[in-house]
């Protein structure tokens, strides 16, 4: 387009990388070679304006040299408003500030490449008349221009803000207000200003703008360019925000994962230092992560690198859990719950806390031995029980592991017999179901044949409830369950008498896993029944943990020390949680708070142990069948030591069997001088010490032989060797020497551990007012029996020859006295009525001056009328008395059967038993027959 207005010649300044627009200012550097020429223009000697034609290069680039520039046809006449030339020695370029005046068009192209030494004068055309008429801008176009310009400026402003306002140094808001205030006439001028300022508009677009002379065309061009660039900025801003958001999400996730890892590490350290296994089923998780089902990996054989892969492969894990859930019976509650949790797990992002909680829950849930779809129809224990010699083999197993304990072994065998019969019945029912199902499937018409087939089976059943049983057995959940419904066996006895070990040999005999749950000190119900999942770090209780460990529905579980379970408190009542476990009616649907799905414990054999029955709650006791173990005699201990404890200790200490022989006397010596217990635990420990001692001797002798010394090793240990091996005997035999003195007798007791022993009953008299003082941590019952005994003695004082007149009170005549009765071991609490006979004898001895021989001990409750009634713990007491060297025991007549049934024959042979019906019988036995006159006694009795 040509300008048909004014024409003149202007020096042409080539701009390689800038454009000057009319009404805009631009500061550039120019080569110093041009300085003289430029200063001439600026000095304006000829009175001309200091104008140059600033013509941009078409092929602009930051590194473009002037001589290489291809000039645009269009440029801008610009006034030099500032010219700074360098000092003569400075290598710098000149600084030139130009203010655009108007568009110019080169009339002809420049003839040669621009010179670096001077600006060539070149004719240009320009137009400085304001736009009018056909050039006028219509209002719509101006509005469109303003809108697009404002949109672009707003975007640039927002962009600038998001970058901290430091990027361009242009005040976009001010420009915006200029645009807003501009009327239609001024818009072409505003468009030029914006074009000069907005550097992001590409060079070609700006050149096009420069070369557009007509204002309306310029406005249209500017409108479309601004709209285009506003859209470009919007889109790029959107992309940037999206990228930023995803980046910040990633950063957030990364940060949280780092934190999670740190927490897990700390927890693992904590658990390691406490020696506690993980709350979740520990290494079993790893096991859970290995493939199952048709899987190629099985537990323990998996890829070793997976074992340590903390993150685990989520997809593999989910597939594994899914396979386990699919193996559960369809429609079963455990499967429904598992599937629900599995779906939740998939929805929740991995690494979140909730994800971990669900994962741990699913680990527990899927590891429990639920009834499975593809369970094999015969299992190991059923096969074992089908063996006709099952019971005799079981007995052999019990005998192989334990000496004596006949009653217990007999009872256990009875228990096994019941379980076996139930299992065989169950197997028979299953067999019938499968036959009838086959017949039904093959052809309904052949059902009669199937029935006749049944009737010729080896074990025809006369059970009238068979149809229901058959129906019940069709339910897959009810199949394969050998229920052990029946009383729970409770083994009661002193420590170390084999309760725990016989339970484990029962499990061995049954071919089932054995698990021991120690209940000693359990105060919190949650320890048995688990914490609800709402608790932080919640987990299942001891029962479900045991089931998860053994991985079978039918283990033998030993509830050890059931007498030491805590009682009801704010933490719940663990004893009542146990009730549910032990009650065969309830435990088929045992609900752990954590798992929260009923679990069938019907196939589990529970055996409980306790040292005493006193602290076991009545309802709990009611569900148990009590079997008592009451400790061993010395003979039994020697046998146990020889046959069981020594081989065990030799193996434990690595000494060959032929390298240690302990003589019977040595065993007896250890049992009586180094241990004083009903069981054999301390004895076992002492034998262990002997074995270790001899192991050292044996290896020393080997060393000496190698060195050529002749140190002989003696494999036999006799009584004389014991002191050097075990030290001074812990129980000094002299200590056992009891005294025979006035007011002192020996009673028989059973300690809280169920251990029997002898307890002195001491009494003295002091001057006083006829009062009785009882000391020695005595409970109410034992105090009352002291008072009863004294009342009886007072009532019979005359008959017994204590007073000279029937009306005299022996505590007041001839002198007023007080009696102080004490039971030693004052720190140990004592209660019970069984010291009555001993009290009477002590009072009579004190008041008459007669003494009771020290080899006599007694037990029995007395009534005010002088009857001697039965007491408990006879076997323990007699064995305790035997250990203490007592020769004669005075017992209530009604306890005779206990002695005859429970006390080993060899003990009966070694001791004398006197059975008393009345207190007088006991007095005769203690003080000697005829010590008191029987005739008078009859009188007293008739008076009563
Ligand atoms: N009759 C026995 N024959 C062989 N070994 C026995 C016999 N009785 C006990 N033992 C051994 O004595 C040790 C202690 O037995 P165990 O731990 O079963 O005692 P416990 O009655 O359960 O004691 P606690 O009440 O303290 O739990 C075991 O090594 C066990 O094998």
From TrEMBL:
<dbReference type="Pfam" id="PF00004">
    <property type="entry name" value="AAA"/>
</dbReference>
<dbReference type="GO" id="GO:0030163">
    <property type="term" value="P:protein catabolic process"/>
</dbReference>
<feature type="region of interest" description="Disordered">
    <location>
        <begin position="439"/>
        <end position="481"/>
    </location>
</feature>
<feature type="compositionally biased region" description="Polar residues">
    <location>
        <begin position="291"/>
        <end position="304"/>
    </location>
</feature>
<comment type="similarity">
    <text>Belongs to the peptidase S16 family.</text>
</comment>
<feature type="active site">
    <location>
        <position position="834"/>
    </location>
</feature>
<feature type="domain" description="Lon proteolytic">
    <location>
        <begin position="739"/>
        <end position="929"/>
    </location>
</feature>
<feature type="binding site">
    <location>
        <begin position="493"/>
        <end position="500"/>
    </location>
    <ligand>
        <name>ATP</name>
    </ligand>
</feature>
<dbReference type="InterPro" id="IPR003111">
    <property type="entry name" value="Lon_prtase_N"/>
</dbReference>
<protein>
    <recommendedName>
        <fullName>Lon protease homolog</fullName>
        <ecNumber>3.4.21.-</ecNumber>
    </recommendedName>
</protein>
<dbReference type="Pfam" id="PF22667">
    <property type="entry name" value="Lon_lid"/>
</dbReference>
<dbReference type="GO" id="GO:0006508">
    <property type="term" value="P:proteolysis"/>
</dbReference>
<dbReference type="InterPro" id="IPR014721">
    <property type="entry name" value="Ribsml_uS5_D2-typ_fold_subgr"/>
</dbReference>
<keyword id="KW-0547">Nucleotide-binding</keyword>
<keyword id="KW-0378">Hydrolase</keyword>
<dbReference type="GO" id="GO:0004252">
    <property type="term" value="F:serine-type endopeptidase activity"/>
</dbReference>
<feature type="compositionally biased region" description="Polar residues">
    <location>
        <begin position="449"/>
        <end position="465"/>
    </location>
</feature>
<dbReference type="InterPro" id="IPR027065">
    <property type="entry name" value="Lon_Prtase"/>
</dbReference>
<dbReference type="GO" id="GO:0005524">
    <property type="term" value="F:ATP binding"/>
</dbReference>
<dbReference type="InterPro" id="IPR003593">
    <property type="entry name" value="AAA+_ATPase"/>
</dbReference>
<dbReference type="GO" id="GO:0016887">
    <property type="term" value="F:ATP hydrolysis activity"/>
</dbReference>
<feature type="compositionally biased region" description="Basic and acidic residues">
    <location>
        <begin position="466"/>
        <end position="475"/>
    </location>
</feature>
<feature type="active site">
    <location>
        <position position="877"/>
    </location>
</feature>
<dbReference type="Pfam" id="PF05362">
    <property type="entry name" value="Lon_C"/>
</dbReference>
<dbReference type="GO" id="GO:0004176">
    <property type="term" value="F:ATP-dependent peptidase activity"/>
</dbReference>
<keyword id="KW-0645">Protease</keyword>
<dbReference type="InterPro" id="IPR008269">
    <property type="entry name" value="Lon_proteolytic"/>
</dbReference>
<dbReference type="InterPro" id="IPR054594">
    <property type="entry name" value="Lon_lid"/>
</dbReference>
<dbReference type="InterPro" id="IPR020568">
    <property type="entry name" value="Ribosomal_Su5_D2-typ_SF"/>
</dbReference>
<feature type="region of interest" description="Disordered">
    <location>
        <begin position="274"/>
        <end position="313"/>
    </location>
</feature>
<dbReference type="InterPro" id="IPR003959">
    <property type="entry name" value="ATPase_AAA_core"/>
</dbReference>
<dbReference type="Pfam" id="PF02190">
    <property type="entry name" value="LON_substr_bdg"/>
</dbReference>
<keyword id="KW-0720">Serine protease</keyword>
<dbReference type="InterPro" id="IPR004815">
    <property type="entry name" value="Lon_bac/euk-typ"/>
</dbReference>
<dbReference type="InterPro" id="IPR027417">
    <property type="entry name" value="P-loop_NTPase"/>
</dbReference>
<keyword id="KW-0067">ATP-binding</keyword>
